[in-house]
Specification:
The protein is mainly beta. The protein has helices at residues 2-6, 33-52, 89-92, 109-115, 311-314, 359-362; strands spanning 12-14, 19-21, 82-85, 127-128, 136-140, 171-175, 181-189, 195-204, 215-220, 226-232, 244-251, 257-264, 273-284, 454-455, 465-466, 477-481, 486-489, 494-495, 500-504, 515-519, 525-530, 532-533, 543-552, 558-567, 569-572.
């Protein structure tokens, strides 16, 4: 017992990189057995307490105190507490993408001419063009970079953009000038008395290990006075051929306007070739920061800025199963809690903490569907039709006039365009669906015509239209005589509507007024479009009385319906009264 008790852990000192234990070996001379028992109980309780607070947020078997990625989103915890990038030009400092066409050969310098881009804001002193001379720059990518210089060894295909690490990820290639000069400049407006970190990612362009380029990032205030600088390099030929972060903290103080410049420091004519990517000026947030104020620290929050686009996607990583965790779950992690074999942990996470930047999920502006026009594409909008019902609980998430019937009154609770069971409309034609519901099932309500059959037209529409594919028809329209024969009084025309019964076969009345045609036994029209029969009609024989009636539905469609009945006439004299 004594030896086991002596090696119980009595305290943990935890950091992100390691856990150390303090252990004590008591002796019989210093402790009585009773005190040893008390110490055993105390130590045991303390050990249990320490283990009970050893949280493992992502349940990957590595406790948060030593886990470098507490939520397995492919972003290091230390990178989840920086604010959104203040840089706005050049695709927020990332230089965007240049599409890759790998379907055919790329003939020499034509690759440069067709597949590189100038800066959005060129700087005087440097020129855009091929890289065969000093003081030149061009936006390029991994696929076209090798064609920038006649040597073929500069900006090789092993130099891949830093933002996403894909073949189309653009970076700025620079052949440094023989004099120190600025090749990138942008002016920013930022909050006062705020701590930022500013900088850029820097890469040697000589894949063969030549040159030793050096750059400087300069901050100037509104008066063009230098207030801060940080130097990157020189990148020696023996250094690893990889991206290097050049950054420095800075407090804005009373200033609000600053200019960030990147310039070459090295001026040699040979070997002064390099690349930059992901220029940044971002707020430094406190440890355990919570960008969206949801009481979940960024390092354990799968959507740190609450824009409904998972951090793993905004960081440029893959999440095929859409659970917010890097790669396909379940994942395997190493001793530091980093996900294995799924990529991640590289590139610039500029959009992760910027709730206004949702391109990772939605694509460029105007390229994705936004059903309700609220500025959130359907991919990230929790309520696509803005009817007040979350899409997961909505029977028709793209139809604001339909969602559910929670009160069981056969009227859809969203029939008014927003969720309101207390005001969900009426059912005029008694088909079990409310008039305002605009539900497709109304197209099959059993009526002979579609006058009450309506469906939803578009997400932003408040007008219902006739059901598609359900034409008007005249099924069931009949006329019949309520007396036979029709009696004429001498010198008095007969109002046919008063002696005919016009209705549907199901008993529903036909509203409105139609016209009558009177045909003789040979089918010739004697009287067309009449509402009455004149008293001088020849008596005797059989005639055909035809009724024409135009049906119109809610969508202003119409059809002319016709039915007929055989009729005879009898003349009565007024003298016979």
């Amino acid at each position: 017992m004594d030896s086991w008790v002596s090696w119980l852990p009595i305290g943990f000192h935890k950091s992100k990189n390691h856990t150390t234990m303090t252990r004590t070996r008591p002796t019989n001379n210093s402790l009585t057995r009773g005190r040893q028992k008390l110490l055993f109980v105390s130590i045991l309780l303390l050990a249990f307490c320490n283990y009970s607070i050893a949280q493992d947020s992502d349940q990957d078997g590595v406790i948060d105190s030593i886990d470098l990625d507490d939520d397995n989103d492919g972003i290091l915890d230390v990178n989840e507490c920086t604010g959104p990038n203040q840089v706005t030009f050049e695709f927020k400092g990332t230089f965007g993408v240049i599409p890759v066409d790998s379907t055919g050969p790329c003939p020499g310098q034509q690759c440069f001419q067709n597949n590189t881009e100038d800066l959005q804001s060129p700087v005087a002193g440097y020129g855009y063009g091929d890289m065969n001379g000093e003081g030149r720059y061009a936006k390029t990518n991994n696929f076209y970079g090798p064609f920038l210089h006649v040597s073929g060894i500069l900006w090789p295909d092993s130099l891949i953009g830093h933002t996403t690490g894909t073949a189309d990820d653009a970076y700025l290639a620079v052949n440094g000038s023989t004099t120190q000069g600025v090749f990138y400049r942008e002016t920013l407006t930022v909050p006062q008395n705020t701590t930022f970190e500013y900088g850029v990612w820097f890469h040697n362009a000589n894949g063969a290990g030549g040159g030793a380029p050096e750059i400087e990032v300069v901050l100037k205030d509104a008066g063009d006075v230098v207030v801060a600088t940080v130097t990157g390099g020189p990148l020696q030929p023996s250094d690893p051929f990889e991206w290097v972060e050049v950054k420095e903290p800075f407090n804005s103080g009373s200033g609000t306007t600053f200019t960030i410049e990147v310039r070459n420091v090295s001026t040699t004519a040979g070997g002064n070739d390099f690349a930059i990517d992901d220029v940044f000026f971002r707020e430094v947030l406190p440890p355990l920061c919570d960008t969206d104020d949801d009481s979940i620290p960024n390092e354990t929050d799968l959507d740190s800025d609450n824009d409904n686009c998972f951090d793993v996607i905004e960081a440029g990583h893959d999440d095929p199963d859409g659970d917010g965790i890097l790669g396909t779950s379940p994942v395997t992690v190493d001793a530091d809690g980093l996900v294995l074999g799924q990529g991640g942990y590289s590139g610039q996470q500029l959009a992760v903490l910027d709730s206004t930047d949702t391109e990772a999920c939605c694509g460029p502006p105007g390229t994705s569907t936004d059903t309700d026009g609220d500025g959130l594409c359907d991919v990230i909008d929790p309520d696509d039709d803005n009817d007040g019902v979350p899409d997961g609980d909505d029977s028709e998430p793209l139809n604001k006039f339909a969602c559910a019937d929670t009160d069981g009154d056969t009227c859809d609770d969203c029939s008014s365009g927003t969720f309101d069971p207390s005001d969900d409309g009426t059912d005029t034609n008694g088909d079990g669906f409310c008039d305002a519901g605009c539900i497709e099932s109304l197209c099959d309500d059993g009526d002979p015509l579609t006058e009450n059959d309506i469906e939803f037209l578009a997400p932003d529409s408040t007008v219902c239209i006739p059901c598609a594919g359900t034409p008007l028809n005249c099924e069931g329209l009949i006329i019949s005589l309520d007396i036979a024969p029709v009696v004429f009084w001498e010198n008095t025309p007969v109002d046919l509507s008063s002696v005919l019964d016009i209705s549907y076969s199901n008993g529903d009345p036909v509203t409105g007024t139609g016209i009558f045609n009177l045909l003789d036994s040979e089918g010739e029209i004697l009287i067309a479009g009449a509402s009455e029969i004149p008293f001088n009609l020849p008596i005797g024989g059989t005639y055909t009385l035809e009724y024409q009636y135009t049906e119109t539905d809610a969508g202003s469609g119409s059809v002319t319906c016709t039915d007929s009945a055989s009729v005879t006439f009898k003349l009565m004299s007024n003298d016979c009264e």
